[in-house]
Amino acid sequence: MELLDSAVERGRSGSQSPAADWQGADAACAGLATPLAVLDLRALSFNAGSLLRRAAGKPVRVASKSIRSKEVLRAVLKQPGFAGILGFTLPEALWLASDPSGVFTDIVVAYPTADEHAMRALATDPAACSRITLMVDSTEQLEWMSAVLASVAQVAPIRLCLDLDSSWRPSVRGRTVGHIGVYRSPVHTGADAVALALAVSGWKNGAGPLFTLVGIMAYEAQVAGLQDSPHTANKVADLAKSVVLQQMQRASMAEITHRRANVVAAVRNIADLEFVNGGGTGSLELTTTDPSVTELAAGSGLFGPTLFDGYSRFAPAHAVGFAVPVVRRPAPGIVTVMGGGWIASGPAGADRSPVPVHPAGLSLIGTEGAGEVQSPLRGTAADQLRIGDKVWFRHAKSGEICEHVDALEVLDGGQRVARALTYRGEGKAFV
Predict the structure, then answer these.
(1) How far apart are the first and last CA of the chain?
(2) What are phi and psi of 114, to 5 degrees?
């Protein structure tokens, strides 16, 4: 099924994103069982084009954890400018690499693995060995992999990517005074990276190498993953916060750009690197200016969840939403929907909850929030809703939504044109 078309060019040109039509989605999905989720083709196409425009010519590796649908991944990878998958587990990578379409031939697993069975399956599969690259950030991981592979008739060296810590550690008079960013890799300095690269090259499998280092990844979460624009009712407080945050992000990007270039240059003296991956949906236009970065990564920006509503540099279209039915009316002005508690990962807070968007005028109740089995909603539209009516939500973060449905109902121009199976719909759950 061809999901994307010339609408991608609208996103490339920077034209206005298509408006969400939740009423049209409701009409198109009338009679379908709930819960259900929709994927709007025009919005997806616009978002794909927007990512490519912001990448400014560098290839974009698609983060599969944000999509979790083979069909959508295939369609995106057919668009010039997208190249390769940034996977999240080794079992997922093995499954994608064996897909008969032959589309998934370059998969970098973004997180270290501790799956012995998958590790042995990789080592004994020549095609998978050529298509899959594993993430490492310590010699302890190399030792674990070596021990797992000791009894395996390995067919080829295991391809590895070094995960460089991109957090910002500001200092005063040479003394570190903080850690801004996520806690991922312990590899922070050039010396750390060189030591690990040398360790990789030192492991042998008989007369040949056990591993080969082919890439470096450096994800600036403190830039890509934080909203930097005022977007709540408290504009004064939000404006002050955004000013401070934007200053932090400028300083952080300057630091990681300088440090990453030095690390890449040093490691290239040891290993023949095929790629240097950086950035995320929230930082593409910044990371692409780093000459040491050869490719970017993005995934969530294709779906445009609510966590991207507060960025100053871009505004994705709302490509995905989900619907659950009204099942109760506990009081005037309040209805209860079945389920709805599709909470996004990350620090607990209101910004991780789904947001009701249709019919307009509904909101979650603060004392209950979005629940695993039911979610009460208050608002002007409540008294007009009937038992069985659908309430539509936008999700906070792309990664979790496809874990709740077997397929995405594909909409084009207000018409339901196809169903795209999710990982769940194909019987897969990798995390």
Answers:
(1) 27
(2) -135, 30
Distances (CA, A) of 411 to 11, 37, 112, 321: 18, 10, 36, 11
> Is the per-residue pLDDT at 233 higher than 80?
no
Residue that has been written with the tokens 């998978």 in this structure: 128
Among the listed residues 321, 277, 273, the one whose alpha carbon sits nearest the alpha carbon of residue 298? 277
Average pLDDT over residues 134-150: 96
Residue from 155, 162, 147, 137 nearest 208 by CA: 155
Q: Per-residue pLDDT for 236 more than 50?
A: no
Threshold 0.90, pTM exceeds: yes
Q: Per-residue pLDDT for 354 more than 60?
A: yes
b vs e for 29-65, b when ≥16 Cβ sit within 10 Å of the residue's Cβ?
beeeebbbbbbbbbbbbbbbbbbbbbbeebbbbbbbb
